[in-house]
Design goal:
Blueprint lengths: L4 H24 L3 E9 L6 E6 L2 E4 L4 E6 L8 E2 L2 E2 L2 E2 L21 E2 L6 E2 L9 E6 L4 E7 L2 E10 L14
Parallel strand pairs: 1-4, 3-12, 8-10
Antiparallel strand pairs: 1-2, 4-10, 5-9, 5-11, 6-7, 11-12
Length: 169
């Protein structure tokens, strides 16, 4: 008995669809997480020098975009790290010798081998700065303008990323 052409076509389409479903999640799981730098009351009487949320758990290839909603100067800075060394906190960008040195462009990648920092005077009143995390690790986030303003970004190990996301995303 011969199989009709239409049955072969439908079977081929089903196999192509099944392969696409199996392949696509790995390519579409990378996410851009949203975070905020600083907060204040409308009266500007009470300010919070903090990163919100204070810690993030992300996956391979994920990025975090920090929004700077206030006129207050802040930086998003990840210092150079190694197993036995963490870079000494430099002065803020905009002052002689400040930054990593200098600043790194929006969309930079951070793996711990070199410092990444945003400019401090340009990212105010709604500006954004994005960093992508390709390697595993616990990375300390600091603001170079405020010594006690810190946070942590934890990049999970490589492997099959989970497409599960929390309410933060």
């Amino acid at each position: 008995m011969k199989t009709p052409r239409s049955t072969k076509l439908v079977t081929s389409c089903c196999w192509i669809f099944a392969l696409a479903v199996l392949i696509a999640p790995g390519a579409t799981c990378a996410a851009i997480w949203q975070a905020t730098v600083g907060a204040q009351r409308a009266s500007e009487g009470i300010q919070a020098l903090a990163f919100f949320p204070n810690g993030l758990w992300i996956h391979a290839g994920d990025s975090v975009t920090w929004t700077f909603p206030l006129p207050e100067i802040h930086t998003v800075t990840f210092l150079k790290q190694s197993p036995t060394f963490q870079q000494v906190r430099p002065r803020r960008p905009g002052v002689p010798g400040g930054g990593c040195p200098g600043t790194t462009p929006d969309g930079s990648s951070f793996d711990g081998s070199a410092c990444v920092t945003s400019a401090d005077d340009q990212l105010v009143n709604g500006g954004t700065y994005t960093v992508m995390f390709p390697t595993p690790g616990n990375f300390k986030l600091v603001c170079l303008a405020h010594n006690n303003m810190t946070s942590t970004t934890i990049r999970r190990r490589s492997g099959k990323p989970s497409c599960f996301r929390t309410a933060l995303n």
